[in-house]
Amino acid sequence: MKEKFLQLLTLCSLSLILNACAVSYDSVKIKPNNSINLKVSEPSDICINPIKPNHFFVASDDGYLAEIDRSGEVTRIKELPIYDAEAVYANEENIYVVDEFSRSITVLNHDLEVERKITIAYGGGRNRSYEAFTYNPVKDKFILLTEMSPIYLFELTTDLKIHNEINMGKIARDISAATFYKGKLYLLSDEDKLIFRLDPSSYEVEKTWYVPVVNPEGMAFDEDGHVLIVSDDREKLYYFNPLED
Amino acid sequence: MKTHQILFLSIICCFTQYGWSQLTLSNGEHVLEISGRVSTYYNERNLKPTNNNRNKDRFRLRDAQIQLEGRIRNDWAYELQVDFVDLAVAGTGDIDPENPGLMDAWVKYKGLEFIEIQAGYGKLPYSRNSLVPFIYSPYWQRAQLTRGEFFSRRDAGLTLSTSTWKQRIKAYAGIYTGLGEFSLRGDNDATGNLEYVSRVEIAYPSRYRYRDIDYFVSPVPMFVLGVNGRYTDRTLPEGREFPEDLGSRYGLRAIDGERYVYGFDLAMQYKGFSAQFEMHQMLAKPANPLDPNFLGFTPEQTDGRFYAGGFVTQANYFWKRAKSIFSVRYEEFNINDLSPGNAKRFSPALAYQFSGFDAMLKFQYFYIIDEEEALDSMRWTEQWRIGFTLNFK
What we know:
The complex is a heterodimer of chains A (245) and B (393).
Chain A: H1 2-19, E1 28-29, E2 32-37, E3 43-48, E4 55-60, E5 64-69, E6 74-79, E7 85-90, E8 95-99, E9 104-108, E10 114-119, E11 130-136, E12 141-146, E13 152-156, E14 162-167, E15 177-181, E16 184-189, E17 194-198, E18 205-210, E19 216-221, E20 227-231, E21 236-240
Parallel strand pairs in A: 1-18
Antiparallel strand pairs in A: 2-21, 3-4, 4-5, 5-6, 7-8, 8-9, 9-10, 11-12, 12-13, 13-14, 15-16, 16-17, 17-18, 19-20, 20-21
Chain B: H1 3-15, E1 23-26, E2 30-47, E3 58-72, E4 76-83, H2 84-90, E5 102-109, E6 116-123, H3 128-131, E7 154-164, E8 169-176, E9 195-204, E10 222-233, E11 257-270, E12 273-286, H4 299-302, E13 306-319, E14 324-334, E15 343-353, E16 359-370, E17 380-392
């Protein structure tokens, strides 16, 4: 019996070696310098409000959009005809809220009125669908990512039509948020707790940071370059110092 | 192990690197998700010297499941899960409580603000170990204490549930047939009585999912404590008997009289390490002084009651870079306190993840340290299982 046991262990070890092709990164650990409790249930993403840069939009898993100030106080709230908001992005004209459940993007104006809603069909798992959304000015494309199994990066035209798709499954176990800051694309992984900085043209990973936060689901940069991370399970907003090269 | 066997398994391992799909149908308000799993293993046992029955040295198809999971807006949820392997076995009249053919068939209404109502057939809110979905386990079998021989794991009935404090506190209460997996046969037993089950758990610093493995490598220590209890009075009318096999292997699941089961569980996880501890005790008050569970003792000797139960503890480490899970489990249980001795079992497990929990090579070793020989004499002393599991989701 012992001999067979050892043989099996050898087999398992061989399998480990044969299949150890996961990409691993040397990441820099960063620590939050402040955190505040959010009065938004199950916050799943955050983005800066470009009209009022000291305010942020937060998407809730419960299907609504909240605007908060830097202290986390809710200044506006908008119930939406969706069920599981997972991503939010705002420019000076519109706010875009992505619903994982219905695979849709709801477009609002800054008075929080719904202007249109677009469904982008996707056959992946109910809870493994669209999770991250932002705009890539380098390519003049919106970026829409699925969460996992696999991680797809869809490039969308400015009228929200799919232009290109790229499998990003090698970079992380999942992707939970995306944002663009100072010429770089940033992705956040909930399961790996990593921030990835990508070249916005090639989507090659340039650098990673480890974020010691439970269930990090959303990420944004404020005007001063501080990193804002929202934790879904803890319903908290964490502030980090600007990322260093 | 022959070279060609190693090569064969390695080829399987390599192919499973590549993607899988899941079919999800949606009309915007109603999403239906179709998933499933197949798992198979090889089992080999070391028998006691007096036994020459080697029928457990075998390949076995453990799971061949299809799961339909639906959500209608945020108001309704439903699930139907079937295991074709166990359906085939159940057709012979033999129901394994850990692997019944029908695993879930329920509808849940989520439209009320503070409470969710679930009706149908599914898992009971009792025992954390039982509530952890098996697809997230490195093991091939749950602990003996929690796999359904001491108390049922599934039943038909009604469950109310609620949560508060950012889902850190969860509470469940339900009413069920009390027949467990045998409720699928239709009729109640001759008592016509029901079983009542409740559970409360509190987690800190955030909600704690039903998982044994710290797959997300928690950056802060996380804890959860659960307490649960259940009660049924199945005193049979004179001259009536329970349906065949209702008591299951140890005869504990159907007591002709009152039965209380209560217990608690504690789990923690931090930086890939995780551990669980769980304890259960059953207090049975058979109505008939000649009930076989009294083992021939007089009412004066037993005070009209007997106890069963035990504990199970498990420690795990998820080595993310190696995509591997290492677990050890120890359990001790007593089938009847009127009989001397406790059963003690030890079981380590190793799982290698090709794609998270969706594709794993799993190895489990079982070792029986001690047994309650008078009530449950085993014909083997140790065994191991190795096999592969694939979730198509």
